[in-house]
Amino acid sequence: MVERKPYAATNDNLIVHGLAPTMRFLIAVALDGSTMTYGELGAKLENEAGFSTIFRTRLGFVVGSLMGKIQKVEPTAPLINVLAVNQKDRQPSKGAGSFMARRFKEKRLDRDDAKKRSPSLWQHSFERAAGEVYKVSAGDWADLYRRVFGTSLDERAIENERDDRKRGTEKDGIQTGRNYGSGGEGPYHKALRLWIKDNPGLVDNAFALATTDTEVDLDSGDRIDVVYKLIDRTIVVEVKSRISNDVDLRRGVYQCVKYRAVRQAMDVREATPVEALLVTENELPGEIAALVKLHGIRHFMAPLERG
Fold first, then answer.
1. Are residues 205 and 145 in the same domain?
2. What is the rounded CA–CA span in Å between residue 4 and residue 241?
3. Residue 6 to residue 222: CA distance in whole angstroms
4. Which tens digit of pLDDT belongs to each residue from 187-214?
5. What does pTM read for this prediction?
6. How far from 230 is each of 135, 182, 207, CA to CA, in Å?
7. How many whole angstroms separate alpha carbon 300 and alpha carbon 181?
8. Residues 187, 140 within the same domain
9. Are 223 and 236 spatial neighbours (Cβ–Cβ below 8 Å)?
10. Are residues 106 and 236 in the same domain?
11. Strands, sheet with 223-230, edge to edge from the N-terminal-most edge strand
């Protein structure tokens, strides 16, 4: 027997019952520095929000309506709707053009054929809009959601949504998340990780205005210790505490290589770099220092006494 869904995919139902879950889904994507295809969004609305089949061509209407609702409350809100993209080109549909045109005061983006007529302008504007979205913190998204929909969005719920979008069903033997061993994360590692998260400006003055996040899951199933998000770049940070030996440090270098590559693949901004930073509390042995230099990874030695 076919399961009856409570909501037919009419315009009225999509606006009344579909915009809030769509914003929750896109917030999780934004915090992960990634995108969601219209197909993925439609499937989540059908499977989790109770909608009958939604033609994928209708999803532009959904995200556009969401962005319009957000702008009535906060006209300068980042264009989270641009993170809903076509599967083939990983870019938003033409409906996003009017929002980008107003945001960046560029009338050419409002043309129906803007993607084809001005592809470089479209890509540049899209990347600029995505960069603004990626930089917003979970707390700020939760506050905006409350103002838009009149109901709270707990940050724990945001984290659950971020976890859900990466949870697979196949048992393939790959360790997901961070494996700290039977004893869990050690106190030295945790203290250093949180200090690095809370003090980007002490790591580098250029990072002072970064939005920071910790224990960030990648779509590969790996977890990054800390991420710094700036408009013009993203920095993935691997932390190795004072008790790390040479094996730990060498592993940290290759973790940086992997995390940088995966995060770059997730990010739609082709011209915006993802950098890797290895943080330790001791000087690097010569072999590890050479490896860091070889792979273009930055190194920061945190002070042992941090007050």
1. no
2. 54
3. 36
4. 999 999 999 999 999 999 999 999 999 9
5. 0.76
6. 6, 35, 8
7. 25
8. no
9. no
10. no
11. 211-217, 223-230, 233-240, 274-280, 298-301
